[in-house]
Specification:
The complex is a heterodimer of chains A (119) and B (333). Chain A is an all-alpha fold and 119 residues long. Helix content of chain A is 66%, strand content 0%. The interface between A and B is large, with 72 and 85 residues.
């Protein structure tokens, strides 16, 4: 079982090395001549006055939280799908309850307006 | 572990990396050529015959460009972001069986057409695409530029929203195949490709896949007219190329997964060509669809995009999943 994953480890090591080379070798080869103006963040020619790391819209946090909730539930669905042929109607009933609760949650979030943008 | 596995895997890794790099390079040319033809212009045709050497020229240029780095960046994360993006893009390919069902025998060794054939199979794909989001978000956050940050925020919100639909649209396939192993999934399509009974799931998967890779008409993170270049505004030279590479390799991966799970992988209708050729043809057809969509459709508005993900694709993929389950169980005896 575990030996299935051994090639993956080697593959990851290989692409890590590739990434390191691509990240450092060409910039080293090309060299860099940094000037103050060059190092400014690009803002269409206007000199930036504040840092970019400021507070941002709460909708993004909401989306991230919703994602975590629903994605964890999706993970429960995958093993069910694989063994459904063995579970038969019992499996369908169980998943109907699960998806029902999931849909109620989705409708609740929907009605609460968490899926609206810019309002 | 033994040396044979190490050597074989390293060779496979080299083939995959070189193959994907070439694929990426020629995908850019393919995209420009097809789009140009759709807009009644010739496209790149100066470098080499039919512009075939254009990707090489572009690549060399990017290779020798210096990398300007913005002041006030987060040094470590600024470097880690392109690395994460490109590693996540390449790592997905470990599970994809390019051909099959058997082995290829070279010098008396039986070699599979994949890097990994573990039982988690496609879960690896979902896991790794989630890591790709970090690459994009860290790129935007660490470069301390407003355009980058906005692009990164949009991009991550979009990617995680569509990841739900992406994951759930494949559940019908798991029900039919009864396995996560991609080799098993392809073998289950020996007679009928899954796209025939599961056409709605295939369409859901492709829409979610296009949104997941930030391509037109869902390319909001890179909306040039408002965000310059989005999350990679502050990257230049080869480091920019790494993000570009990750995006195109992700397109190739989404198409490859669609080929393997829905379009029968290496199985061809006539059995004339060997397996890898069928695989390649199907992937290129799907990539053509990507370019076609980009040339045809205008960009969506951001709120519409998020609502499409949460209010349409998510309930529809749940519905498709339950319907498939009921039909499969009812058809059993």
């Amino acid at each position: 079982m575990l030996s299935d994953y051994f090639p993956l480890l080697i593959f990851l090591a290989a692409i890590f090395v590739f990434g390191l080379i691509a990240l450092f070798f060409p910039p080293w080869l090309a060299g860099a001549r940094t000037t103050t103006a060059k190092a400014l963040p690009y803002e269409s020619g206007i000199v930036p006055r504040t840092t970019a790391r400021r507070r941002f819209a709460v909708s993004f946090y909401l989306t991230a939280m919703l994602f975590i909730i629903f994605d964890v539930e999706a993970i429960f669905i995958y093993p069910w799908a694989v063994i459904l042929k063995g579970l038969r109607w019992f499996g369908i009933a169980e998943m109907a309850v699960f998806v029902g609760i999931l849909l109620i949650a989705l409708i609740y979030v929907w009605k609460k307006g968490a899926l609206e943008w810019g309002s | 572990m033994n040396l044979e596995v190490v050597v074989v895997t390293l060779i496979k890794a080299a083939i995959i990396i070189l193959g994907l790099l070439t694929g990426f390079a020629y995908m850019t040319l393919f995209e420009r050529k097809v789009q140009a033809r759709m807009q009644q212009r010739p496209g790149p045709n100066r470098v080499g015959p039919f512009g075939l050497l254009q990707p090489l020229a572009d690549g060399l240029k990017l290779f020798f460009k210096s990398s300007a780095e913005p002041a006030g960046r987060d040094h470590l994360l600024y470097l880690a972001a392109p690395m994460l993006s490109v590693m996540a893009a390449l790592a997905t390919f470990a599970i994809i069986p390019v051909s099959g069902p058997g082995y290829i025998t070279i010098l008396g060794h039986n070699i599979g057409w994949y890097v990994m054939n573990a039982n988690i199979g496609i879960l690896w794909y979902f896991a790794v695409t989630s890591i790709g989001v970090y690459g994009i978000f860290l790129a935007g956050w660490s470069s301390n530029s407003k355009y980058s940050l906005l692009g990164a925020l949009r991009s991550s919100a979009q990617m995680i929203s569509y990841e739900m639909a992406l994951g759930l649209s494949l559940v019908p396939v798991f029900i039919l195949a009864g396995s996560f192993r991609l080799v098993d999934i392809v073998n289950a399509q020996n007679k009928w490709w899954f796209v025939i009974p599961l056409l709605p799931a295939f369409i859901l998967y492709m829409i979610a896949g296009i949104a997941e890779t930030n391509r037109a008409p869902f390319d909001l993170p890179e909306a040039e007219t408002e965000l310059v270049a989005g999350y990679h505004t502050e990257y230049s030279g080869m480091r920019f190329a790494l993000f570009f590479m990750a995006e195109y390799i992700n397109m190739i991966t989404v198409s490859s997964i669609a080929t393997v799970v829905f379009l029968g992988g290496w199985w061809g209708p006539f059995g004339v060509l060997p397996g890898p050729w069928w695989f390649l043809i199907k992937v290129v057809v799907l990539l053509y669809v990507y370019v076609w969509l980009r040339a045809s459709l205008p960009r969506m508005r951001y709120d519409r995009l998020m609502q499409l993900g949460w209010k349409s694709l998510l309930p529809l993929s749940l519905l498709m999943m339950m319907a498939t389950g009921v039909v499969v169980v009812a058809a059993q005896r």
